[in-house]
Amino acid sequence: MIDRRTLLLMSMALLPASASAASRRLLPSPQTFDYGPARLDIYARAGASSLPVVLFIHGGAWRAGNRTNVDVKPGFLLDNGFCFVSIDYRMLPKADVATQADDVEQAYRYVRANIARYGGDPNRIAVMGHSAGSHLAALTGLRGGLPGVAALVLNDTRAYDLEALARSGGMTPAYARAFPDPSQWRALSPATHVGSRKHPPTFIAYSRASGREAASRAFAERLRATGTEVTLFDGSAYSHMSINRDFGEGDTLTRAVMTFLKAALG
C-alpha cells in the first residue's frame, strides 16, 4: 500500500510544476483512425520518437461514454513525454461485454502495429482503464489478449471476480445488465485468468465508492501471489468519478500513477 505522504515527497520532482496548468489551457488535437469495429484517437507531438504510450479505455457501465472522455490526460501525458491513445469500443446493448473485450484487443493490435510512425514505442505500451474500462483492461491483459503489454493501470471497478461480487450482494443493476448470464461470469472475470503465471506490472486504484476497496484488495493479493508487481493505491479520498477526472491535475493519484509508469515503462 502506498503511503500518501511518503509518495508525495518522493515523487515531487517527477512532474513539471506547469504540466497540469498547460494541460488545462490546451487540449491537443488527435489523429483519428478506424481500427475495424470502432475508432481510436492518437495524440502525439510532432517529431516524437520511441516514447512510452498510454492506451486509455473509457468507462460508462459498458453502455455509455466514448473516446473523447479523456479530461486533461492527453495534454498532461504529452507534456510528460508520452504518446496517448484513447479508444472507442462497441456499447451495450448492441455488443455484449465479450465483444467489447475483443474490440479492445483489436484496438491494441492496431496501436502496437502502427504507433511507431507517430512517435510511440510499441514495446512500451501501458493500458489504462477506468470503471468498465478498468474491467476490460484487466480482462484482456490477464487473459493474454494484449501481447507485449508493458503495464496495466486499473482504476476503480468491482468487476474483478463476478461470482464473488454476486455472492456479496454487489450485483447492482448496472452490473446485472452488463453480465446477465451467470454461465459467463467466470470467463468474463479478470480473476479467473490470473492463474499462476507472472503478469505485467499492475497499478490498482480504488475510490470510496461502495465495495471498491474490498474488491481491489482481494484482486491485488491474488495477483501478488503469482509474483506480479502490484501497486495498490488507496483512493478513498476520491469519488468514483473524480479518481478518473483528476488524473493529470498534479494530485496524489497523478503522482502515484506517474511513479508507477516511469518504473514500468522506463
Written account of the structure:
The model is unreliable at 1-25 (pLDDT under 50). Strands 1-2-4-3-5-6-7-8 form an 8-stranded mixed β-sheet, with helices on both faces. 35% of the residues lie in helices and 18% in strands. β3 (51-57), α3 and β4 (83-87) form a beta-alpha-beta unit. With 266 residues, it is an alpha/beta fold.
- Count of DSSP-assigned helices: 10
**Low-confidence sequence ranges:** 1-25
**Into which percent range does the helicity of residues fall?**
25-40%
Helix-strand pattern: HHEEEHEHEHEHHEHEHH
Strand order of the largest sheet: 1-2-4-3-5-6-7-8
Q: Got a strand count?
A: 8
**Which structural category do the helix and sheet elements fall into?**
alpha/beta
Q: Which of globular, elongated, flat, extended, rod-shaped describes the shape?
A: globular
Assembly state of the chains shown? single chain
DSSP strand content: 15-25%
Mean pLDDT: 92
Largest sheet: 8 strands, mixed
- State the separation between the terminal residues, measured CA to CA: 22 Å
